[in-house]
Design brief:
Layout lengths: L1 E5 L6 H12 L2 E4 H9 L3 H8 L1 H16 L5 E4 L10 H7 L3 E6 L2 H10 L12 H19 L4 E4 L5 H12 L1
Parallel strand pairs: 1-3, 1-4, 2-3, 4-5
Helix pairs in contact: 1-8, 2-4, 3-4, 6-7
Subcellular location: Cytoplasm
Family: Belongs to the shikimate kinase family.
Function: Catalyzes the specific phosphorylation of the 3-hydroxyl group of shikimic acid using ATP as a cosubstrate.
């Protein structure tokens, strides 16, 4: 079984994915970490030195590499992965089960303000501009996110509760 977790930046995909994989005795891969390891460069440096178009190209290649493998695993995508290179169509042609971890703008903004520097897309924005940016971006990206097999609202839920709810969806 392959389980793919998707959602906006700072929605908790990696934390939830790690915990879910542990409960299911599956390997866990975070796509951003995988890219950093393969490219021997941080995501921020890839954006800075090679640009977003290059990043989206390799993100697509590594996504395919992981999903075409025989390994059973939990995979957390980057926030933009579903929205480029027809990645959602590709994911839906594999036998992976995809879950959109849906969060409100308010929660995302609170979290992003705390960890802005790690996110190249928001790092240079003024704090007052972040809400406006996230609202518009989430609206655009929602079209792709909603193509997941399941949409799970996760605001105000503990990690344990979210993991349990995902396990119920998988049955
Ligand atoms: C991105 C999200 C990031 C990372 C890159 C681009 C995006 O992943 O892939 O900075 O376009 O939303 P996280 O969602 O893990 O922050």
């Amino acid at each position: 079984m392959k389980i793919v977790l998707l959602g906006y930046m700072a929605s908790g995909k990696s934390t939830i994915g790690k915990q879910l994989a542990k409960k299911l005795y599956l390997n866990f891969i975070d796509l951003d970490d995988y890219i950093e390891e393969k490219e021997k460069m941080s995501i921020s440096t890839i954006f800075k030195e090679k640009g977003e178009i290059y990043f989206r190209r390799i993100e697509h290649i590594y996504l395919k590499e992981i999903l075409n493998s025989d390994e059973k695993l939990v995979l957390s995508l980057g926030g933009g992965t579903p929205c480029y290179a027809n990645n959602m169509d590709f994911i839906n042609t594999t036998n992976a089960i995809s879950v959109y971890l849906k969060t409100t703008i308010k929660t995302l903004v609170e979290r992003l303000l705390k960890e802005k520097s790690k996110r190249p897309l928001v790092a240079s924005l003024d704090n007052e501009k972040i809400t406006e940016f996230v609202a518009k971006h989430l609206f655009e990206r929602g079209y792709f996110y909603e193509q997941a097999n399941f949409t799970l609202p996760i605001d105000n839920k503990t990690i344990n509760k979210i993991v349990t709810e995902i396990r119920i969806l998988l049955h």
